[in-house]
Design a protein that fits this description.
This protein is an alpha+beta fold. It folds into three domains: 1-112, no CATH class; 115-161 and 395-425; 174-387, no CATH class. The protein contains 16 helices and ten strands. It has helices at 21-58, 100-105, 119-124, 130-141, 147-161, 222-232, 249-253, 264-277, 282-294, 302-306, 313-332, 340-352, 355-363, 372-387, 394-409, 414-422, and strands spanning 63-65, 73-77, 80-84, 89-91, 96-98, 174-187, 193-204, 212-218, 240-243, 259-262. The strands form three sheets. The protein has a five-stranded mixed sheet with strand order 8-7-6-9-10, with helices on both faces. A three-stranded antiparallel sheet has the order 1-4-5, covered by helices on one side. Strands 2-3 form a two-stranded antiparallel sheet. Strand 2 (73-77) and strand 3 (80-84) form a beta hairpin. The longest helix has 38 residues, at 21-58. It is elongated, with a radius of gyration of 31 Å. The two termini are 38 Å apart.
Length: 440
C-alpha cells in the first residue's frame, strides 16, 4: 500500500485583546473549507503525477505530455465548489488528449455534483420541499445544486439503495395497517389532482416491542398488499391484525389463524358518522354516544392495562363482563328496523374491539388498544406530503418515501447506507501524524 504524506503550515493571527471561544470556533469552521480544498488539491496533484507516470510506463513512447491544461473543472463537494485544472497527455496513436487523473480516481465525465455531496440535500428533503432544501444547502456549503438535480439524486438513491429487505427470518407476531389520501400530478375526470390511497404496515415481534415499518404502497388494493406482505415476511406467524376498520382491510389481510383488534379510538370517533347515516342528527345522537362512552372497556388506556397483572384476574374478568354487558345494552337500544347501520356497526365493534381481553385471558399479556403507533409514526410524513409538494408523481412519491423510511424510521442505518451507496474503500485511511505550534 502506497503512502502519501502532506505537510501543512498554518498561521493564526491572535487579536491584541486575546481570542474569544465563539470567535475561534466560528473562524475555524469557516477555515475548514479552505483546509479541505488545500488537502484535496495536494492529493489530486500527487495522484495525477503518479497516473501520468503509470500510463507512460505502460505504453512507452505513445503518450506525451500536453503543454496545455484543460479548463478548470468544477466539482461540487460537501464543502462547496472545488476547482481543479486536469493535466492532459497526448495519445500519439489517436491524436486525442486524455486526463489520466479522471480515470485513476473515477471522476465522472459529465457530472459536476459528485454523489458524496448529495447527502445533506437528500436528508433535508425528507422534511422540507426540494426548493427549500437546495436553498439551505447552498447557504451552508455553496454547492449550487438545482431542484431538478436534487430530485434526480433522490430518485436514484431511492431506486438503488432503498429496496425492502426480506423479513422472513424476523418472528413478527402483530401487524398494524393504516392509510391516507395523497394527491398525484395525474388529473381525474374533472381535471383535479387525482387522489389515491397511500397505505403502510408496521409489524412487531411481541408485547411492549416497537412496531417496525414493513411496507408502504401507493394506489394498491389491500389484496395486492396481502400478496406483497406474503412475499416479504412470514405471514402465517402473525397472530393479531390491528386496524381502524377501513373497508377491505379485514377481508384481505385477516387470515383464518389471526385475530382482529379494532382501534378503540377510531371505533368511538366513527360512531357519529354511522348514526348520521341512519338519519340521526347531532342532538339525537347524544344518548347513543354517551352510552358508548360509558362502556368500561371503551375508556381504558394502555397504561391502565399495564397496571393489571395475573393477581387481578377477577378484576379483569369483571371489567370484561361489564364491557360485554354495556355493548349488549347499546345494541338493544338500536332497533334494527330504525337504526340498521348503527346496530350492525356496534355488533361488529363489540367483537372486534375487545380482542385484547380474550388475548389476556389466554396469554396473560396485553396487546395495544389503538393504532396510535402507526398514526404517530406517520404524522410528520403525512404533513410533509400534504403541506409541501402537494402533487406528486407515483414513482417520485414512492422513491421519496423509501428514502424517508431510512432517514426517519431507521436513522442508525443512514451512515451505513451512504457508505454502501458511495462504494467506500475501507483500505483508504487518513491519519493525523502530528500537530505542533510555535509563537512567531
Amino acid at each position: 500500500m502506497a503512502e502519501l504524506q502532506i505537510e501543512l503550515k498554518l498561521k493564526v493571527q491572535i487579536p491584541e485583546n486575546g481570542l474569544k471561544i465563539n470567535n475561534l470556533l466560528y473562524q475555524l469552521r469557516k477555515f475548514m473549507t479552505q483546509l479541505f480544498f488545500a488537502i484535496l488539491r495536494a492529493i489530486f496533484s500527487a495522484m495525477e503525477q503518479r497516473a501520468i507516470e503509470a500510463v507512460k510506463a505502460a505504453f512507452p513512447g505513445r503518450y506525451v505530455k500536453n503543454g496545455r491544461r484543460a479548463n478548470q473543472r468544477q466539482i461540487r463537494t460537501s464543502y462547496g465548489v472545488f476547482g481543479y485544472s486536469l493535466a492532459r497527455v497526448l495519445d500519439k496513436e489517436t491524436g486525442k488528449t486524455v486526463s489520466p487523473l479522471s480515470e485513476a480516481i473515477g471522476l465522472p465525465a459529465y457530472r459536476r455534483h459528485i454523489q458524496e455531496s448529495g447527502e445533506g440535500g437528500i436528508g433535508l428533503v425528507c422534511h422540507l420541499s426540494y426548493r427549500k432544501s437546495v436553498k439551505e444547502i447552498d447557504r451552508i456549503i455553496g454547492t449550487d445544486m438545482s431542484k431538478s438535480t436534487l430530485h434526480r439524486e433522490v430518485q436514484r438513491f431511492g431506486q438503488e439503495m432503498c429496496q425492502w429487505p426480506d423479513m422472513k427470518n424476523v418472528p413478527y407476531r402483530y401487524l398494524m395497517v393504516d392509510g391516507t389520501k395523497v394527491r398525484l400530478q395525474e388529473t381525474d375526470a374533472k381535471g383535479h389532482g387525482k387522489k389515491v390511497e397511500m397505505r403502510w404496515a408496521l409489524a412487531s415481534v411481541g408485547e411492549n416491542e416497537k412496531f417496525e415499518l414493513v411496507g408502504i404502497w401507493i394506489d394498491k388494493s389491500w389484496k395486492q398488499i396481502r400478496v406483497d406482505l406474503g412475499h416479504r415476511l412470514k405471514y402465517s406467524k402473525l397472530e393479531v391484525l390491528f386496524s381502524d376498520g377501513g373497508p377491505g382491510v379485514v377481508e384481505s389481510l385477516l387470515d383464518p389463524e389471526m385475530r382482529l383488534q379494532r382501534c378503540m379510538w377510531h371505533g368511538k370517533r366513527d360512531f357519529p358518522y354511522v348514526l348520521y347515516a341512519d338519519q340521526l342528527k347531532k342532538a339525537q345522537q347524544e344518548p347513543f354516544k354517551t352510552k358508548l362512552k360509558s362502556i368500561p372497556g371503551m375508556n381504558l388506556k394502555q397504561a391502565d392495562l399495564e397496571r393489571l397483572s395475573v393477581e387481578d384476574f377477577e378484576k379483569v374478568e369483571q371489567l370484561a363482563e361489564k364491557t360485554k354487558q354495556g355493548f349488549t345494552e347499546l345494541i338493544e337500544a338500536l332497533p334494527e328496523d330504525k337504526y340498521p347501520k348503527a346496530r350492525a356497526y356496534i355488533k361488529n365493534l363489540s367483537k372486534e374491539v375487545t380482542t385484547f381481553f380474550d388475548f389476556w385471558f389466554e396469554n396473560e399479556v396485553w396487546i395495544p388498544l389503538t393504532t396510535n403507533a402507526i398514526e404517530s409514526a406517520f404524522s410528520q410524513v403525512k404533513n410533509r406530503i400534504w403541506a409541501v409538494g402537494k402533487r406528486w408523481s407515483e414513482s417520485g412519491l414512492m422513491n421519496w418515501l423509501k428514502v424517508v423510511v431510512h432517514k426517519v424510521f431507521y436513522p442508525d442505518s443512514w451512515d451505513r447506507l451512504w457508505e454502501k451507496y458511495l462504494g467506500l474503500d475501507s483500505d483508504l485511511k487518513i491519519n493525523l501524524l502530528e500537530v505542533c505550534y510555535q509563537w512567531v
